[in-house]
Structure formats: structure tokens, C-alpha cells
Protein 1
Amino acid sequence: MEFRQLEYFCTISELENFTRTAKVLHVSQPSVTKAIEAELGLTLIDRSQKHVTLTDAGRAFLIHARRIMQDAEIAKQDMMRFCVGSAGTVHFGVPPMFEAYLFPEFFKEFREAFPNTLLDVQEFGDSDEVREHVEIGDLDFGVIFGKPETSFANELLIMHDAMSLCLPQGHPLAEKEEVAFESLRRERFILQQPRTYQYRAIFARCIEAGFTPDVMLTTMQLKTIKQLVANGTGISILPDFVLKGEHSFVRRPLTPRLTARTALYWSSHKVFSSLDKDFLTFMKQYVAAGKFQDPGAADRQV
């Protein structure tokens, strides 16, 4: 069975007419579908009617034919990555918060350096989900955010960052220069979803301090977290890089300090195309120049 035969079958199922299909695909033999039927030993098309209709077997075969054609197109697009100097796409995944707060300037500079390369940036619910999509090949690279002591051989460290306590203006704890976790036992927390590093790290640190945090709301929307803290609904703990220029609430360092690491991750069995190599090299240079380092430090409230 040939790819051209599958293309013909899919087209005739859409146009429902042999003549129009022949014109579209520039073929003149309706015997194409008969060849498929002969190979399968099944009747796929009901030819007894004026318009082409598929049999039950034909409708089932159409699902497979379309999937094969889609996979072939995906493979074709993916192989373009290995053509030196050609346009292509780098598929890049990030957990919540990162695309808007940490990478806009990086995207801008990468685009200027590689104008023919498309960055397909996708946001996922957490770092584990990003890593999963990298491993199955949906993504070329992904950003992971997690424990400072956790690292992988197939990654590039981007930055370490502190996580700060976020309090409403006028909160009693805002009078302190730093706040101990033990002081948060009566507070209501607004956090990201339970699978995120932010949620798990804060929950674990509270347990170590001798209490279970009162989590009143979880959301993936950082804007919502900030607004709820600002209006006094609760408190949160966020990485400093998302707090740059934020003055609607108060930030205080925690004790013991809570930190996280951000890294670029790729599959351990990845075959690097020229586009992948360009992207990784550019990222290394960007990191080495210190452009990601703690963007919120300069205006931290103390």
C-alpha cells in the first residue's frame, strides 16, 4: 500500500466524487481505491449510489489513513530541523509563570538572532508535565522549576532564585525584616495547584514547622494570586522573578530561606538538529551573561 493511495482515499471520502478527486490529485484511475480494497480483501466504497459513500469498513479505514497522513506530515516538518540554514520550529515548554515573567526578553533576542526560526512556546500545569512531554518528543526543550538540590545530566542550569513571602499592606508580619515559617500557622494560603513545586515545597516546609497550612484556594493564574494577596484575602509565597516591580503588596524574606532552581531540560536520548544546537548555544550564552539572574532583586522591599 502506497502513501499516494491513502491520499486518494482520504480525498475521495471528502469530495464524494471520483471525477473531482481525479482533478484535484491529477490522477485518472478510480482503480486506486480498488487496489487498496484488493490488498485488504474488503469493500471500502459503496459504488452503487450517485455519490461516493464509505462502507463501515471504509469509515474505519479512513481513521487509520488520516492518522498515517498526519503522522507523515509531522515527520516531514520535524525532519526540516536537520536542514542547515532552513526555517524550522523549536518546540519549547514552560510551567506556569515563566513565559510572561522570565522569558520575554530572551524570546526577543533569540528572534533577532534567528529570524527564520519559529519558537512554539507551550505552557503546562507543572514541571513534571513539561518533563513528560519532553521525554515523549512533543517538546524539544522544557523549563523545569524545582528543588535546588535536584539536577539532571541532560539540563542547563538557568538560575537559583529565592521565594518570598507576599503579604497584604498593613499585615502585622510586614513589620518584620524576615518571617519564620512558624509565624504562618494561622494564615490562609493562596497557592498554585498541588502538583507544582511551589505548593509541595511550601506544604512540606509548613509541616516541618509543626503545622498543616490552611490552603484556602489554589489556582494556576498568577494574576489571581497577586490580586487576592493585595486585597487581603490571604498570603502567598512566590519566586522573586515574578515579583519585579510589584508594589501592591509587601514582600518579606523567609527563614529558613526557601529557594528553587530553574533549568532548561531536554531528553536524555535526544538527537540534536542544527536548530536545537543553535537554541541551546544561544541559551548558554544568555545564561552566562547573567541575563536571567534574580530580576526582582533590585527593587525588593525591605
Protein 2
Amino acid sequence: MNNRNFRLFRHSTHTHTPPPHTDTMTCPKSELEADKHALVVSEFIPNRLYFVTFRNKTHRNTTDFHYFTTDDELVYNNYYADFGPLNLAAVAKYINKMNFKLKSPSLASKVIVHFTSSNEKKRVNAAFLIAVYAIVNLKMTPNEAFNRLCSLKYPYVSFQDASMGESQFKVRLIDCLNAVRKAVFFGIVNFDDFNIDEYEKMDNIKHGDVSWIVPQKFLAFSGPVDSPGEECYHAPEYYLNYFRENKVNTVIRLNVKMYNSKSFSNAGVAHYELYFVDGSVPSHDIVTRFFDITENASGAVAVHCKAGLGRTGCLIGAYLIKHYRMTALEAIAWMRICRPGCVIGYQQTWLEEMEPALWNMGDSYRLRYHGSVDHIRNHKYGIYSFRNKEPNQMQSVEGLSCDCRDMQQGSIPTLYPHTSLHTSPTATSSKTETQGDKLNAVKRWRDMQQTVKSFKKVLKKTH
């Protein structure tokens, strides 16, 4: 990706040579559209790959068509009323599945149909999967993939945040696709070099609830505690080996003190306090200090609040907007794909209103340190990389040209009344549940249910 122009990349097209079309079969798209249960038919590879929304109908394979669905296989684990987008592991599994089907000799002469139901939540997640595949493997732009899916009669619902009940804070399907496109382009993720097992293990609350957002730069995790007591919490020492293996040398705490920071600092991990109230947004001083710490850190930075979702997402999201010129909605979408539940409530509004100022700051930063506003980081290895495991293997950083608009330099505006920058208060014995407590409780219950399901599967196989 050296020195490629992002403007040209945005508008690139891809042609895919379809397999020979047999005379014994009518046009696949016409045949699919003729099905009375078909609501929308989208063609991704002519005569070869289609995405179809059926009216609650199960399809069996035929001589000419191979049907499959992911609706009950790749499922989103919600907190409350949130229902997507599906996480990185689901995306990686889907890409592997689709590649297998397209390369399988037994399916070489068949039309492959990924179908979904009219359930609007399952449908938009299924559409997200095949559109990401089209972007990553068929080299379509997000708009090209999205336009193939579009239907005026059956539009796609937007994803909402992890709030209880209906929420006004939405992220659209196209925002998710744009986020993945930028993440792939800048090397933040490489699905040809992605360790699904590591992602799923570290995502589990029993194994630390750790999520990489930017390779060798940012990971988000649940706040440690000195005396865990429950499986959803871990002592600081639990994380040290993983941090050493992944060159994490800085921890930033955003919540009240629940562990002694010396547990990290005595192990050679720098520790910083940037406390602000659970569920709120950071002050000007906190954002400035966060950038100062993270832009000067020599290794990766681990950021946590109580659940590692809301406050953590605010600050990492601000970094993504500033340094990768993502929109606020793209940054939120990317974080939720990496770590479902990130950014809750009006934290989204804060990021959206901060977007212009953060873009200006990013332009100023790149111009000052790299001589060009278009110099955007390109990662040699993506998050959860297999290849980036050799000792002392450092990723390269190369200049890329990004589609950046000329904007006047500006500072961060103060948009809300905030708590001032100060040391984290110590947790008290108060029984008041915070937003982070509730989210962690959901994580614990969810993982327990998953354990029960896995146990039942084992029992079923043994009988």
C-alpha cells in the first residue's frame, strides 16, 4: 500500500470473471426473483454469488443452487437492546466460509446464495457480512457493496447503542462498511492474517475481556480490581504476561480506584489516571492529556474504565478520528466491531460534535511531524496477527495519502460541563450500581449462558 493515493483507492472498481453460464439454467437472478418468497435479490458476482432476503423460508440445495444462511450461526451477543454489528470473529469466520464455498470443487458449477429472513435485525447483520466480504475480497467500495444491497421497499435498520430499550443513538450499515474499508486500507486489520482463537479467547470475560482496537497501539479492557471475588474481574497481575507479550507498556485508568497502580508500575508498565464520571464525556483537559500520553508512548496503551466500553470508547474514538480521519460514526462502528457495546448514549453526540475539531488537530499534527496532512499511518501487521509474533518484531509505519479536506486549524471546544482532570477517587463500599457495573453483570451472565450451551452440546454428543 506504499504511496497509493487514497482518492484513487476510494473510487477503484473491481471486475470479477463469472463462471461459464450453462444453457440449461435461466439467468440466476431472474430465477431467484421469480421465487414468490423472495423480497430482495442482490447480485455480487454475476451468475455465481447472490444475497437474498426471503420471507421466512428455508431453502434446500438444488442441482444449480447452493443455499446457506448465517442467521442462527453467527449471532450478536447483546447487552440490552443493541443487536449489532457482528464482531470481528464473526466477520473473519464468514470470510473463511465464503472463500471455502467459492473455491470448493463440489460447488464450482453451482450458484451460491446467502439468504436471510425478513427479521430486520438478522437481515442487516447478514447484509453487513456479505458487504464486508465484497469490500475485502471482491475489492468493491463501500458504496458499491451497499448499493447492491439497497431496496427502497425494504431499507435496512440502523444499529443502536447498548442502551435499554429503543435508542436515538444509531450507526448505519454504510458507516460500518466505511469503517471496515478504512481499517483494511490502513492495515488496522488483515483478514488473511487474523487469529480468530485469540480474539474469542481474550474477548471472554474469564480471560480478561481484552479487545485490540489499533494494532500495537490501543487495547480496551475491563477495569482490574485488587480483590476480584467474581469471575468477571481480574487482579492487575493477571494481565501482565499478556501485556509483556504484546509490548503494552502503558495503562490509563478512567474509573475510580479499584486496584493499586503500583501493581502495574512496579512491573515496568507506566500508569496514568484520567478519571471522569461513569457514563459522562471527558473534559478538554482530559482529552489533551490523553493525546499527550498516547502520542508519546513507546509501546501499546491499554485503556480501561469499569467495563471498558463507554469512557474508554470516548477517548480511543477521539484518537481514531484525529489520527485516521475517520468520521465519528465510523470510529464508533469500528470500535463496536472490535468490542461490541463501545460508546453509549450522548457519548456518541460528543464524538460527532468533536469531529471537525479533531480532524483539524490531526491535520496540524501530521503537518507538524510528517510534513503533510495526508500522511496517515499504515500498519504492517493488523490486530490479532499470526505473523507479528516474533520477538522484537516492530511494525513499520509508512506515509499514505488520504482524502483529507483543507480545514482551518482549531483547538478542542468545550461542549459540555465536565469533571476536571484529577486523580481517580477510591472506590467506596457504596451499593450504588454504575453503568459499568450493570454492563459487567450482563457480560458475566452472558458468558455463563454460553458455558451452559457448550456443556449441553458436549452432553448431546456423548449420548
Protein 3
Amino acid sequence: MNDLSYTVMDRLPGYTLNELMYRRPELLEEHKIVISYQLGLHTAFSYVFGLRDGYQSNYVFDPVTRILTRIDKERFLELPPNPDKTLQPQDPYTQEIASCELSNLKYMHSFREGVDRNQVVDALKEGFMDKYDDIKNKKQDLLQLVTHTRDTWLKLGPSTDVQEYEKETQKLASTVSFLVDQDPKRVWRRLVEAKREVDSRPETP
């Protein structure tokens, strides 16, 4: 699967989802299915690799190439301390991923109004499943990438206890491996439920 959508760049042609909603809503509606599908790709990636802050301002869509790019990856490998609980009700990790990623659908007028809502959700789910399967197929390569990323951070970051850092790297790789091995259908259902849990919380004054 093509991973160009995960390229990190400072400036990209196109519009954030927020800009599309307020400045070019007709483009958002025209491309809602392809955008939803790619949001599904990103959601799977974010869940498995602890990529937080999947807000609308961190997604840029280019209507020419029809590629949705994630532009902010500062919070990467921020994984759950208890990965065996991510499929349980009220798990904060799953809730955070769901509340960020799935909330992006609300920027589509037809989704908010209930028009084509099922098609939009189905496209997001399809992208999620496709990406999860792709991650499973590339598991060993991606685990090596986790280790390589951590090694790079060690070289570029401030001095630290190398042994402790390596232990943490092993734990992160083990967590990613655990999340990769989960059933994507169960993960999807849990994300949808987690979004409902977040939405049902009473508003704070």
C-alpha cells in the first residue's frame, strides 16, 4: 500500500479539513468518500503506533492529487501503558484516538445532516481495515522502523541512560506488536464505542 499520505512536510498544497469546511465546502463534499477512506488509513496507523492529535487542522487534502496528508507527527509512539486493556470499555487510549480521528467526519455537511452518512462511515471503515491488514503484512519491517526511529531519537536528543532507553524501546516495540496482532474488526467496534463514550460525557461548565 502506498504510504505517501504519511509524508511529513512543512508546507503542502491544499487545505486543512477545517479550511475545507469554511472556505471550500463544495470540495469537501465532492471528495468526501476518498477523504473518509484516507481518514480510515490514518486512524489505523494512529491506533497502532500511538500517533496522537489527529485533529482537523493536522490533515491537509490536496484536491488535485486527492491525497490526505497528516502534517503533525510530534506525538508519535505515545502508546498505551496497558495495551491489553485497549479493547475494554472506558479505556483512555482508545477514547483519545477515537475522539480525535472519528470526529473529523463532522466537518462533512452530508455526514452532519445524515445524508450519505452510511457511505461516509463505510469508506472510513474500509480504509481502516485495509490499512490494518497492510500493517499486519508489514509487521516485522514496521517493528524495525520503530527501533530505528528510537535509535535516531537517541542520537539527536539529550544525553540519557542508554540501558533504560533501550528497555523502553523494547517495551514500545512489544506494545506495537501487541496492537498489530489485535483483531481489526474488534478494534474498529471499540473505537466506535469509545467515540460514543466520549460524546456522552456531560459537558464541563
